[in-house]
Amino acid sequence: MSDSIGMPRVRVATTSLAGCFGCHMSFLDMDERLLELAKVVEFDRSPLTDIKHCGPCDIGLIEGGVCNAENVHVLREFRRNCKTLVAVGACAINGGLPAQRNHLDLGDCLQQVYVKRDGIEEGGVPDDPELPLLLDRVHPIHEVVRVDYFIPGCPPSGDAIWKFLTDLIGGRTPRLAHPLLRFD
Amino acid sequence: MQDAERIAAQAVEHHRREPSQLLQILIETQDGIGHLPPASLTRIADLLDLPRSRVEGVAGFYSFLHMEPVGRYRILFSDNIIDRMLGSRGLMESLCRLLEVAPGEVSADGAVSVDTTSCTGMGDQGPAILVNGLAVTRLDEARVERIASLVRAGTPLADWPADYLHVDDNIRRRGALLGEDFVPGAALQAAMARGRQGWLEEVRISGLRGRGGAGFTTAVKWMACRDAPGADKVVVCNADEGEPGTFKDRVLLASQAERIFEGMTLAAWATGARQGLLYLRGEYRYLLKHLRAVLALRRAAGLLGARILGEGGFDFDIDIHLGAGAYVCGEETALLESLEGKRGTPRIRPPFPVTHGYLGRPTVVNNVETLAKTTLIAVQGGAAFAATGTPQSTGTKLLSISGDCAYPGVYEYPFGVTIEHVLEDCGAHDPQVVQVGGASGVTIAGHEFHRRIAFEDVPTAGAFMVFDGRRDPFEMARNFVHFFAHESCGFCTPCRVGTALLKGYMDKLASGKGAKMDLADIEWLDRLLKNASHCGLGSSAPNPVIDTLIKFRPAYERRLVSLDFKPAFDLDAALETARRMTGRDDPAAHLDWREEV
């Protein structure tokens, strides 16, 4: 990537919804290329910066699906602020592992975990308003907001994320060919 | 259970332990038991020396085969858009209410199940149902009430009112094929007098093209089969008329069976085939007895069997195979798979059936109407046949006309007839849309009614569905999309997943939750289906959506909410369980749709 002194840097925000941060770890797997990236990119809200809310951005990277009300708010904030929104990884694209609860009834789940479980004496479903409520099903993010691009993989490799971002920033339609395009 | 095994074993013996007869064996076994219990499948697999998974794979593929018990009366409502316009949905609700059974389920006493099925080919006399595989037409509330009481009383189907099971031909306009009397054997005699080569030459001169939709030149197909290496050639008649809205082959099978079988024999004369197979769609099973009787007559008259009409070396006979409710089997290579007793998964072409067809043998596959037309060529000559129609589409075409018109039925026109001419003849008073060629065909808007039915302009296998100003083109397209999603054979991902996604988008729009983004996604899916599918089913599945999006875009746009994006589900409602479980109702326990972005 060429040095771009004088060019406005691209603002990027990232977040993890119902995910495991594995995609963020993969992001860090870009290793020394992160320094290259830092020359053209400025980070907004992200676990990397600990900025709590997102301002106007060029690119938003979303890891994880949508499992609760807070995920919805965060996702909407990203969509409102990011020109280009990208679903990163299996959970953002398909719901992934958290979506395995989709064939179970949420009420039964909560009962089983907080009320009926062995060893629980005075159980009860937590009702603190601080806790976000769970949606009845886990959704991929494109079922809640418009999504512009998808990077598959569980997680996508650092190479795949690097290729995707350099394409996007360079003005090329992002293209992940074999072997970067993979779903596992 | 021993009974089930015995019935299965009988069916296997009846079909000479021939693995290629597997579908026929499963149909016969189910006829005896009512469904296909696991023990029957195991027994069939043992006797045929096939893996059990192969047998279960076939049983699971066809929608008229059931591995779970179904009602003693199994009632299926034809679910084409035309049946719906005639009130099928309301009648199905009435019947379910009267019989106290939920759609798609078996009644508690096991007596009856009610469900929907793809178009049964009765668009001119719907709403139609199948009762244990036999067609009942012209349903109304009175018939539904009577049917409910017949079912409750356990009256055998044979004792139902005869007019319920009567299917009309409704031939409204006769041309060269339907207008002339036919003396069985006359076409054969004429063709045999010309010799095999001379007969093929007449077919070439006639310019006859396939009537099943693709329009391939018949003489070229026959010559390719004749010249293909391999002595054991086969002629297959494709009577798997599954395209929604078409029923002209049904009328030909009922009224012109002699011509169809003679056409197959003419193909055998041209190619040297000794074996013929007619693949009859399961929905037309009520015609089986009649067709077998015609075959017997022809054998007795020396028109089938060994030394046909005394000609040494001209031996040919015809078997009938039943389908079991799979639209994709109308595709010729899927049909061959099905004839071989397999799942109806289309093959990769080439090689084409003319060199590698039924059991790998050189095979001619022709549509019912194409074969019937060859009898005209034999009797009158190729030049006389080519005198009607247009330069690239010679002869006549049968149209199956249904929908919003006074006189639905079968019409025979010379190729080149304009759509407006047809609309006037069939008494369509306020036509807005005509769907030509069925669900996979072309959507014609008012400004195109001057166009002509011909391979050069609007090609068709024969379906012609008329929609007037009361109808919604979006709902028509949505019905067809549901049809394709149901009929996708599941073999290739673009079609299996693509048709399901397309159905999801159309349903999202129908429920008033569509957004502009969805139209872009639909158009992307249309392209994906068209370009990436394994066979014609997937690549033509988006046709009604593509056409209506171009010609009736407001029908889509008026369903959109004015948002960039709208979820297909209600986010706040999705929190309801958690609200109930926690007893919360504070602001954070809700999601406001007005904040959607």
Short synopsis of the structure:
Helices cover 29% and strands 20% of the residues of chain A. Chain A is built from six helices and seven strands; from the N terminus they run E-H-H-E-E-E-H-E-H-H-E-E-H. In chain A, strands 2-1-3-5-7 form a five-stranded parallel beta sheet, with helices on both faces.
What is the fourth-level CATH superfamily of one domain in chain A? NADH:ubiquinone oxidoreductase-like, 20kDa subunit
Rounded mean pLDDT score of chain A: 93
> What is the tally of beta strands of chain A?
7
Largest sheet of chain B: 6 strands, mixed
What layout of secondary structure does this protein have?
The complex is a heterodimer of chains A (about 180) and B (about 600).
Chain A (H helix, E strand, L loop, with lengths): L9 E7 L5 H7 L4 H8 E3 L13 E7 L2 E3 H13 E7 L1 H5 L11 H9 L19 E6 L9 E3 L6 H12 L15
Parallel strand pairs in A: 1-2, 1-3, 3-5, 5-7
Antiparallel strand pairs in A: 4-6
Chain B lengths: L1 H13 L7 H12 L4 H11 L3 H10 L11 E6 L2 H5 L2 H12 L12 E6 L11 E3 L2 E3 L4 H13 L17 E3 L2 H4 L6 H21 L11 H10 L6 E6 L8 H8 L1 H15 L3 E6 L7 H13 L16 E6 L9 H8 L23 E5 H13 L1 H5 L9 E8 L5 E6 L4 H7 L5 E6 L5 E4 L17 E6 L4 H15 L5 H18 L5 H17 L3 H5 L2 H9 L1 H5 L18 H7 L15
Parallel strand pairs in B: 1-2, 5-11, 6-7, 6-9, 7-8, 10-14
Antiparallel strand pairs in B: 1-3, 3-4, 10-11, 12-13, 12-14
Keywords (chain A): 3Fe-4S, Iron, Iron-sulfur, Metal-binding, Oxidoreductase
Organism (chain A): Aromatoleum tolulyticum
GO molecular function, one term (chain A): 3 iron, 4 sulfur cluster binding
Describe the protein's architecture and organization:
The complex is a heterodimer of chains A (184) and B (597). Chain A is of the alpha/beta class and 184 residues long. Chain A has six helices and seven strands, in the order βααβββαβααββα. In chain A, the strands form two sheets. Chain A has a five-stranded parallel beta sheet with strand order 2-1-3-5-7, with helices on both faces. Chain A has a two-stranded antiparallel sheet with strand order 4-6. Chain B folds into five domains: 2-61, no CATH class; 73-168, Glutaredoxin; 172-386, NADH-ubiquinone oxidoreductase 51kDa subunit (Rossmann fold); 396-471, Ubiquitin-like (UB roll) (Roll); 474-557, NADH-ubiquinone oxidoreductase 51kDa subunit, iron-sulphur binding domain (de novo design (two linked rop proteins)), CATH 1.20.1440. The termini of chain B are far apart. Chain B has 597 residues and is an alpha/beta fold. The mean pLDDT of chain B is 96. In chain B, helix 2 (22-33) runs antiparallel to helix 3 (38-48). At the A-B interface, helix 3, helix 5 and strand 6 of A face helix 24 of B.
